[in-house]
Amino acid sequence: MYESHWGLSLKPFENTPDPNFLYHSPQHEEGLSRLLYIVSEGKGAGLLTGVFGCGKTLLGQTLFKELDRDIYKTAFIANPFLNYSELLMHIAYCLGARDLPKNKQDVLVNVVLERLGEILENNMRDGKKTVVVIDEAHVITDLRVWEELRLLLNFQIENQFLLTLLILGQPELKAMIDSNKQFSQRLAVKYHLGPLTEQETKDYISHRLNIAGASETLFAQGTAKLIYKKTGGIPRRINHLCDLALFAGFGKNSKVIDQDLINEVSADVEC
Ligand SMILES: Nc1ncnc2c1ncn2[C@@H]1O[C@H](COP(=O)(O)OP(=O)(O)OP(=O)(O)O)[C@@H](O)[C@H]1O
Ligand SMILES: [Mg+2]
Q1: Would the CB of 52 count as within 6 Å of ligand 1?
Q2: pTM value?
Q3: Ligand located closest to 58 CA
Q4: What would the DSSP string read from start to end of 59-86?
Q5: How remote is the CA of residue 23 from the centroid of ligand 1, in Å?
Q6: Which of 56, 138, 205, 268: disulfide with 170, CB 3.0–4.6 Å?
Q7: pLDDT, tens digit, 9 for 90 and up, residues 14-60
Q8: Domain residue spans in the chain?
Q9: Architecture of the 26-193 domain
Q10: Does the CB atom of residue 15 touch ligand 1 within 6 A?
């Protein structure tokens, strides 16, 4: 809507996890390289935690984009708010199982686990690696679900894991996993993403503007510092505030986003 006013080819601050916009802050870079390491080395499982809106899903999506489809078979579970049998069914379905049973949960779990085992072995025989990402895993409170996920890590041949499980979620997930010793002992890597620093917030804004084709001077001097103060360096909040500022500035026919405009829009919303 406001793109042509600001000379943009894209909206720079959409709140969707689009890998094309990834800004490689040191911690996003480190988080991504650890995820890639777990996957490429065929480690059993890894954990990525972080505060709300800091880029966990974006890193998961970026990892998936980088995986060579000729080598990796993947499942990305975006919403694991499912019971234990449904979650296993969903993973199996994403990995290509089609002939799944539909009745009696306990029987079903064994059958689904068996089907998953076959799929994983076939993948390995075909020279493929299997990667399952569970996003938003902090919503999994049913211990049976964690138990089923742990069982997936028992699929091994000659001490090689047949799948890599990446668990992403908000900070409380770490305590949940730490209290489940059998599961946490299998994690090869744990990494936590925090907010951006003030300088990173400035670079983040410039980076996203740049990808969207904007001039770096679109945001006046001092605005990045103010945006950092208002948002605590959380990317989703930064996006929200910057998007509103671009919209409001367009409405006023402004030529630049300045501190007054940032103050004005942030007074109207909780960013
Ligand atoms: N390093 C980054 N580079 C570019 N954009 C980013 C970065 N980190 C986060 N974002 C953007 O911030 C927004 C929130 O990111 P994302 O959805 O990945 O956060 P999250 O940690 O998964 O949040 P939640 O805890 O709510 O699931 C998205 O629009 C995403 O593209
Ligand atoms: Mg997320």
Answers
A1: yes
A2: 0.94
A3: 1
A4: HHHHHHHHS-TTTEEEEEES---S-HHH
A5: 10
A6: 138
A7: 999 999 999 999 999 999 999 999 999 999 999 999 999 999 999 99
A8: 3-7+196-268, 26-193
A9: 3-Layer(aba) Sandwich (3.40)
A10: yes
